[in-house]
TrEMBL record, chains A, B, C, D, E, F:
Its cofactor is Mn(2+). This is Agmatinase. Gene3D superfamilies: Ureohydrolase domain. Binds 2 manganese ions per subunit. Keywords: Hydrolase, Manganese, Metal-binding. It comes from Conexibacter woesei (strain DSM 14684 / CCUG 47730 / CIP 108061 / JCM 11494 / NBRC 100937 / ID131577). One of its GO terms (molecular function) is agmatinase activity. Pfam families: Arginase. SUPFAM superfamilies: Arginase/deacetylase (SSF52768). Mn(2+) binds at residues 128, 151, 153, 155, 242, 244. Belongs to the arginase family. Agmatinase subfamily. The keyword Iron does not apply.
Amino acid sequence: MIDPLSRWAQYGEKPDYAGLLTFAGQPYTEDPAELAGVDVAVIGAPTDDLVSDRPGTRFGPRAIRAASCPPGPHLEAGIDAFSVLRVVDYGDAPVLPADAARSAEAIERTVGEALAAGAIPVVLGGDHSIAEADVRACAAVHGPLGLVHFDTHTDTGREVFGVPRSHGTPMYRLVEDGHVDGSRYVQIGLRGYWPGDDEFGWQREHGITSLFMHEIRDRGIASIVDRAVEVLGDGPTFLTVDVDVLDPAFAPGTGTPEPGGMTPADLLWACRTLAHRLRLVGMDVVEVIPTGVGSADVTALVAERIVRETLTGIAQRRRDG
Amino acid sequence: MIDPLSRWAQYGEKPDYAGLLTFAGQPYTEDPAELAGVDVAVIGAPTDDLVSDRPGTRFGPRAIRAASCPPGPHLEAGIDAFSVLRVVDYGDAPVLPADAARSAEAIERTVGEALAAGAIPVVLGGDHSIAEADVRACAAVHGPLGLVHFDTHTDTGREVFGVPRSHGTPMYRLVEDGHVDGSRYVQIGLRGYWPGDDEFGWQREHGITSLFMHEIRDRGIASIVDRAVEVLGDGPTFLTVDVDVLDPAFAPGTGTPEPGGMTPADLLWACRTLAHRLRLVGMDVVEVIPTGVGSADVTALVAERIVRETLTGIAQRRRDG
Amino acid sequence: MIDPLSRWAQYGEKPDYAGLLTFAGQPYTEDPAELAGVDVAVIGAPTDDLVSDRPGTRFGPRAIRAASCPPGPHLEAGIDAFSVLRVVDYGDAPVLPADAARSAEAIERTVGEALAAGAIPVVLGGDHSIAEADVRACAAVHGPLGLVHFDTHTDTGREVFGVPRSHGTPMYRLVEDGHVDGSRYVQIGLRGYWPGDDEFGWQREHGITSLFMHEIRDRGIASIVDRAVEVLGDGPTFLTVDVDVLDPAFAPGTGTPEPGGMTPADLLWACRTLAHRLRLVGMDVVEVIPTGVGSADVTALVAERIVRETLTGIAQRRRDG
Amino acid sequence: MIDPLSRWAQYGEKPDYAGLLTFAGQPYTEDPAELAGVDVAVIGAPTDDLVSDRPGTRFGPRAIRAASCPPGPHLEAGIDAFSVLRVVDYGDAPVLPADAARSAEAIERTVGEALAAGAIPVVLGGDHSIAEADVRACAAVHGPLGLVHFDTHTDTGREVFGVPRSHGTPMYRLVEDGHVDGSRYVQIGLRGYWPGDDEFGWQREHGITSLFMHEIRDRGIASIVDRAVEVLGDGPTFLTVDVDVLDPAFAPGTGTPEPGGMTPADLLWACRTLAHRLRLVGMDVVEVIPTGVGSADVTALVAERIVRETLTGIAQRRRDG
Amino acid sequence: MIDPLSRWAQYGEKPDYAGLLTFAGQPYTEDPAELAGVDVAVIGAPTDDLVSDRPGTRFGPRAIRAASCPPGPHLEAGIDAFSVLRVVDYGDAPVLPADAARSAEAIERTVGEALAAGAIPVVLGGDHSIAEADVRACAAVHGPLGLVHFDTHTDTGREVFGVPRSHGTPMYRLVEDGHVDGSRYVQIGLRGYWPGDDEFGWQREHGITSLFMHEIRDRGIASIVDRAVEVLGDGPTFLTVDVDVLDPAFAPGTGTPEPGGMTPADLLWACRTLAHRLRLVGMDVVEVIPTGVGSADVTALVAERIVRETLTGIAQRRRDG
Amino acid sequence: MIDPLSRWAQYGEKPDYAGLLTFAGQPYTEDPAELAGVDVAVIGAPTDDLVSDRPGTRFGPRAIRAASCPPGPHLEAGIDAFSVLRVVDYGDAPVLPADAARSAEAIERTVGEALAAGAIPVVLGGDHSIAEADVRACAAVHGPLGLVHFDTHTDTGREVFGVPRSHGTPMYRLVEDGHVDGSRYVQIGLRGYWPGDDEFGWQREHGITSLFMHEIRDRGIASIVDRAVEVLGDGPTFLTVDVDVLDPAFAPGTGTPEPGGMTPADLLWACRTLAHRLRLVGMDVVEVIPTGVGSADVTALVAERIVRETLTGIAQRRRDG
């Protein structure tokens, strides 16, 4: 394990732009044995083979890492996640370009290694098709999962353009395969023009809860979060965040943006609160297409903060015992 | 008429980035005879000769088309505009660079062809000077019109820098020429530092209703929309949307941006609701300066959605009978 | 003194993109003698030697000037600041690259010249380290100052990476040196992960008021502004605005952006209102990293409007007597 | 068939930014019956599923069309290709995202339609994997082909990352499958660090001629072109141009750029001269990743000119009889 | 007159990014009386009303100034132009948006003021239509002029899209009106697909010399320069440089780029040499569309150097007596 | 030591965009003990505190790493440097923002660790001021060094803007301090307008050889390289490459670009050839300001290849014995 902070030990922090590129400057290892005692393992899943429109999410994991700021106390929550949780960067899953099936296996296997060591996996996408792999890996350990899913789109297509494995289909497959329990699956932020009656019919059959963007607008985010907590209860839950749930102004670097979306203020608060109130066993943040350098890439930046707020909530929950 | 979907007929949709570039992938024709039975004709007006600051709106129409997503049911309204309305892309008006007068004639003539066929014209700008041409064409058919005008600026200058025909003057000319009825003219979103007492004095003389950005902030968009409906009543009405009414974060690609503007959540809802409650006979969306590719251009993207929400409202109204 | 408007005198305004580059097209001088009778002197401080992450603010002053729109009446406030106040562009302080100490002296001296002439200095940064120089210059004339400080970060570090003079430390030094009165120092918009207990402990010792971003979210900006006015009272006050207080969507061009920030609607209103209600003796706007041309640079644009709203508030106060 | 020029008939040309988006403003059809009498059919192949590094070429065909300038006489060659050849834009092949196999079929079928009508297909990529489909379609009509291949890379991998179908393998498959005659296959512009001994050994076995970038540097482009003509002789020949053969300064928008490449002056001249001296039965230009609007996208622009120079050479050959 | 260097007097130079924005940091005046004794007056002409494709050159003059580096000795020529010549920045001509005729008058008048004072005007465009105004002003003083014209296009159209006044027509009008002597008019760098037989026929009638890009390629720039000097002789000569004569890699920010163009090495040398060997009475550099900040805008940067090399040549000539 | 290839072991290479970010995907360590047996240690020096114009080079080292392609045989040289040399990425020197002196110490110390282990240091800047630290470290081991210095500027200022430590002064200090032997110091590519007589006088006194850009243009790069080899002979030599020696088209991401520069074809060949023919004991490549992602950043890309060509030359020399 390499700790990027070592060379800057006397200052207690290092500049974000210098030193080994890891998530939030945390220690790095690719050795499963070194995961012992680790609370959270951050894993990159740099894929975009299965997107339906603009590609580029393969560059997401590095960009999210590069947008990190140093650890420190969350000014609203009053807790520094990194002082409560032992977080490591477990590197990228060994994905392959133009081979989505082997990439999925690689992601599932790498996430599985983290889980085997008792760590909560936090996966940096990549396109949303990675959810099939990472949620499956978590369900293999924890059984059928609850799912909190922030997104513009339901991603419950049976197929997209006749293709069964797509970034628009993972949730359909996870529910059908029993890895996600439809009655404990909450979608938040839906808007736009997809999907249609078929998919929503299937969703109703499986008891899936859809909370639309216009409900956030009308009822406020706190009410929506309460509803999600009510549905999800105490069981093991996975959090998946597609950055396109945000309005494109806040996350322009994504492949299927839809105007009229959430604000970071709402989304970040919701992630932290849900992590505090639910029993999260894993998370991913997906669909970041980087275009800039370091924190100049506002989409990667907000994705980094989505993770960090979630870690803060996990730390709050742990502190609360 | 060419239907870009034909080659993808077996999938029911085509990728946004492939096939003939038309609005929302709708059929394309330049033949007025083929407009028979068409409900909505989308027309490009790629001009920017008359702007006062940053140019580039001549690239707007193509960019708005390229930011389209496929048709589908509006997740809040529960209706797919394209299954209710027959929409065609009628191509661009044959504008000329550096000849604003002939461009205006070309726009007026092309919009007139759509009107003659009984279609509602939806014009993609271009700078706001096109409103003089497209509103005039509508007024020639429907008589003096009501006007709903989303904008930072009133565009009611007698002249800008001594120039009588400018993107800052169309509304003055339309009212003076009797094509717009001042008592049925509502401006929404005004802010910034223009115009001055003279122009507002003239506006008062003509009974024009100005709803400022700070009123949206203080009273909420629903109240503003109600007031607009009250003023406009049942008469024929034109909707003109300058994307600079949005805050620059949401529409950075525009020539005279002004911080402190509307959110897409409000604007999109307002366009749909107004289209539902008013009798629209035409619309335009203007002042988009593209800088990116496909949906990566957030300004073109939100402009496309402004049109689509309006079409959704028109479809709702038609469904309601 | 050169008035950029002269060549366009017959039109009463000039295009923003043409003529001598000055703030809002106002007259330009570098001669202290010509400051007699001037109400506001705009001064550039193009520095970035002391930043901790992304540099580039040395290009800020020119970009803010280039994002200007012409003077005119503020549509909400109903007053044209430039018709009430005599504003000149006093040029840039003669800073030097790679010599932060001499740059600070140059800024302090140049601001001092404006103050000596009775003008209110408005300083365009530059990184936030310039606040040490410009506030000190004001305090030399007016005595210990109240400070309204919009920012994500407190900038009250004793040191950053072991460096005592940084864009993260000016407020510590100003309070310690007695130029800012801690009991009349209000921070607005704090969020993120910095600083820690030490710094907040020091802040409490000095009676500094911290108003966090989550308080703006929960209580509304009007309440926050009221609280600031209450703390600051009637004494001489300096306004310092770090554009990173805005959400990165609204100010992407800044070095340490933090998602979940203020909207321009709130910030611009707050600056104007505070300028109206408080006795401002100086202001600065800092941390703009330009990337675009003219008003296409949305960060420079909003920074320009931050100044203009403040001038509007000052003009309102002066009008009120 | 729709002729975008019709609406501008009185001017003899239309602005590049206006009207239906087709290659060089040429007529558009998707109807094979309308290809009768057509000399050249331009076909888009918007794919990037099989790339090994940066994706985005799916946006290539539209960008190449949008970078067109109007037809006119080539100032060096003294001939207007469009007055000699009847060129139509035959639209895009109905490719699908995330389904490379069906996309390849679609490309091969669409190119086959053009060939069946007697037209020379000119295919706008897309990534280089499309060459397998479009060359195969040509070989089905003309028998085993000669191949002139401008590229940094040989694209003769058996597999890339264990994947047999990739943008790094089409030439291997075409030769192995007998669609390209190794003894009439000339690669021009090779440089960098790929492939290795295995691939070059295989190339030698098949008699493939490799002309490296350093040979262009040392011997001049005219000598290289002479050598290619010598190898290719009079048989049917396909021209495939990967824009990464150019130095990245001239074609920054490509997925695997390699510094030290060709200049457009050399490449454009070579394409025209080869088209004049060889019997071309088809061509493609590939690996364009657009990032800008219209001719502001320099990579799309040079790709458009690569096609146009080739058409000029074909026209010269036809004129010469 | 204001000298931006004054505040940095003790260092002998100022940072490029600081201080009043003028060409090369030279003194600024708008007062004709202060032009007495001035050798060269730099004048901005920020227009783009008459372009046929991509606009944006109205931002050119400021960008060219902002790309300046400090004066100093030319390392090849061994002379510092600014120590030989007294250069001032005479500001921008008072152009108006959307009023090309009045803008042309303003340019002609402002250039005339410089000429009346005995200064050589150096005009920073703006689109190429400004040449009609600035050359006319020079011809009014010096009589019919020789013209050295670097460009991809001849700009000798009678009209473009039916418009007689365009950036594609100034040279036609200047020759027809007798301001340029066709027998002393040399075009250098022509390529691409415009104009056609009509225009070249007209050119032959007027004895205009066209030196094509392929001649530079085949004969070398030195031979081309020799030929130009031979044609132009000792008479008064104007130099006009359209940056699109460069390959788009070197000048991407221009409205009608054409691949296969000149290198800066050739163009800069040629400008300096021509200025040394000919009797220049004025120059302009046109068609710069800025997109970046300071020297990061490579097109503005090379335009600045085109001016500076020309000034160096003028200084060499003056030194030689 | 962590080998990023491990997870992709079965494919023999990994995608450039995936896995731990190291130079060319080589193993990573921060432990000096692990440098035993290493031939080349790559070290990042992410600084820009001492630049005189555009900053941003602190992001250079990561960008250069991210622009890597996999190892492989050099197609001209016929050798794979990474199979001859054992290369490791030794991480970044622990630099600090806003503390140039401590950053220089950190660089010198880190480079010294590599040297102590017998490895050749290859330093990725950062601005050119790092040369003072890295050359000094090499001279401490090898005695006064020869220096091959590709650059637009001599960087031999005594001071820049009165500042003695700047990116414009390292060579002056290295020669004055005896770390570089003036008689074995060759500058290649000088052009533009700096420095002046004083600096060149000092250079002559120290026997420094200046080879100007115009000499490359007139004599060819091979002759220039021969001259450099002649001057440098067999002694220990350091290679320092400022990417601004390239024309800005090829390296737009740099702080003080100067048109009319070298081509990558010449520069890459020269670096390889010099590394083959000289006894290099260290190198750096500096002044890269990244703006893009991965190989889309053409400046970082060419910087990566500058290193790689140099490694190829070192490998050739080693193979030759």
